[in-house]
Predict the 3D structure of the following.
Amino acid sequence: MTQWKKSDIEKALDCAMTRRRFMQWLAAAGAAASLPCGLLRPRKVSATGIVYEGGYETFRNACPRNCYDTCGMVTYVKDGIAQFVEGAPESTFTNGGLCVKGHSYIRRLYSPDRIKYPMAQQGRGTGNWKRISWDEAMTRIAEKLIEIDEKDGSMLGLALTKYSGNFGITNYGVEGMFSSLGYTTRMVGTPCWPAGIDAQNYDMGNMWCNDPEDMVNARYIILWGVNPAWCSVHTMKYIYEAKQRGAKVLCIDPVFTQTAAKADEYWQVNTSEDGALALGMARHILDKGLVDRDWIDKNAVGFEDFAGYLRKSVSVAWAAEKSGVPAEQIARTAEEFASHKPATIWIGYGLQRHVNGGATVRALDALVAMTGNVGKVGGGARYGHLQTWGFNYHAMIQQPPEGAKGYLGSAAKGEFDFTKKEGGPSYSNRTLNINKTARELLEASDPPVRVLWVSCKNPLSQDFDRNKLVEAFGKMEMVVVVDQFFNQTVELADIVLPATTLFEEWTVDVSYWHYWISINEQSVKPLHEAKSNIEIAAALSRKMNQLKPGSCTFPTQVDTEEWVAKEFNKGIYDLFGLNSWEDLKTGMRKARMGQAAWADGKFGTPSGKYEFKSDLCAEHGFNELPLYVESRKPYDKLRVLTPHTKFSIHSQFVNLDWMEDFNPQPFVYINPITAQSRNIADGDMVTVKNKSGEVTVAAKLTDNVPGDTIMMYEAWFRNNTYNCQNLVDDTSADMGAYKAGAPGVAIHDQFADVTKA
Amino acid sequence: MGKQLAFYVDSDKCMGCFTCAMACKNQYHQEKGVVWRKIYPLAEAIYPHQERAWYSLACNHCENPTCLEVCPVKAYFKRDEDGIVVHEQEKCIGCGNCIRSCPYGAPQYNPSLKKAEKCSFCWQRIDAGLAPACVLSCPVDAIQMVDLDQFDATGLVQYAPGFPKFPALNPSVRFRLPKQPVVVRREDT
């Protein structure tokens, strides 16, 4: 790897004018003749950009975003400049390709919009940013932390909000930095998937699913509330292959998604009535004698109670009425599903972002289990897994300084927190619900939250009750944000610190879906003054110890490559067949985890069996059986869905100018009938408004959404104030506290009305 | 007929994910607004669900390319070995004849250079034994490179609905058309 030069970057990237002017200058100066002719030979065909030239250095990278596919990448570098990327060829999952987002990474690395230096804002939201040195930034922060520690007698006034912006394992060093400062305040939980995680834990004792590549073996596939054509593009080829081999593919979703268009059959289910639909199918399977009694006798408990409930309280007609799917389809499909083994359901995350989300996932699990499809090749209730995440969390596990005081009582833990606490003092961190960040920040007292640190997260684009969140940020004495772009959260910061991109740091990445692991090498030297999260932690530790010796235990020097090595252990080596972590420099490896999740029938539940009836679930305040639970009552005229677009992962990627070529502006999608009754035409600017806030945006009319629903995609546009979170309140989902530390959030249980702007 | 490379556009597999279009930008770093590979949603008259079926299109590397015919400075040539239509940008004077003449909209105007440019079929990659960037990137093999001289096009069409029909040009592209699922909608909406 060689050091980059500014001129090389300009040459490599769309700076045609710069290069042309340079050449004109050379000609005018008479200098051209004295230069080796190679330098001035015109680039063939494409003078504006680059072309494939061969002779590249290659490096291994991995996309660390919160995505099923977590693609391994190969980065092609010349003269210290990353030129282009491809998917890792040896991974049968990615097979040489990335997605629209992954292929935009080079632009992200070299974007002129990047945050280049530490900067301080003179007045939050003013945009009056001033460049400061790293030393000044660390001094300001460290002085503030020492001040609050002395004022409060603890570091509990320092809060961290961080989630999935970068899942590279060494980025858990942010949590490590916090631990190394003392006992602090942490936002725990996840807006993503916790209700379903808990549901699967009650039913099976863990969240674990078959390899997605095994989906080719399925004879019947239900894609239930999941849109892989956009959100897991590399899984689609396995679904196509299963179809090719004769499987039937049914897609169930409130929206006619791109995945629906690729299925054999699509059902437009009434949002958040998926549980009723599954239970109706279960009842029909029971009535038809298609239950897999052998499997249940060997592997499950509580089925008779569940069957009793179905007979007493569920009918196909009732399920049809609740779900909107005709009884005839429910009955026919239930029979097909039960009689085509192996059959599988891929359970999406959207359907559990509801007040009844966990209950819904339990009902879907039950449907798979009662037909004997759990633990089977080509079968399974697929939701996700964390089986390959058994790293050391070396960066994360740091000790508090001697004498640090904290919160008395136990703290909640997130689903990615694999640390075990052994002995030690009885103090702990103060944990606040990440899904109620706004109100938790406002209400925390004794001490109040004084300093907020944001990393790997864009709360102002992602978090709920947004108007209140703005208020909460206003209450902070200091806000520090670590990021790459001046997004809506950075707008409300006092100090912003430039974070490295995946090309500029070492880390290691695994997926919560496929079974592969990828190393992430430093392919180019960090641009500008960017630092990785653990380098920032080391810099802060240096300053803390300089100003107040002993106030921070984080190592003051880190080598990000060495820190990657420290994350590996024998368990990971054995799982992936590695002799050394450095084996990964030659390519990705796949975990050896047997034929199918739960194939041995040894479940992680208290009974060791699949639990249709879960005492643990009852202990936690829910129904012991997967009973129907009512959905949230509408509080406005239309339901608002705010799912992902194919052009982004949450608030990332849409801001890049390369992406703007394909996705220049946001829309609200409205059914033509709904639009007509409001005198809204295609392309009109409209205002979507509810009790939480409002959004003004252009309308696109489409019957892909039902008449009672409007849809807007989550995104952050760099030149547009659009933000769908203005309309989302912080109502909790049912489950999630057991494994993720806080309940999920009912993102898709939101309502609003729309009028012409 | 000799070797003629062509794009096989499998619209039944295509998910309109724009991966191929961005893979092209990743390889060539075109200026903002200059897009060689475009992903066209099919009109509802052709496919009834809006933005759910697509054609991924770039230069069709025609047998008889209009761009080559109309270029006053011979900036275009057709490779003998594989039929790729190459635009030599250093010769281009930016007159726009090719841009106005191509019925498929393949040549694009680069406002900074004041010249045309278009899909090269990644001939530099092909010469290095590699797949074109778009073809390599597609997660479902919905865009493939084929040799029309060898390719069995049974069941495929050259002029898919909505794709301009210019037999005299003989565009090197073949389509498989998208199928529709059985759709069960709620009765109450």
Summary: The mean pLDDT of chain B is 96. Strands of chain B lie at 5-10, 38-41, 54-57, 76-78, 85-87, 108-110, 115-117, 143-147, 173-176, 182-184.
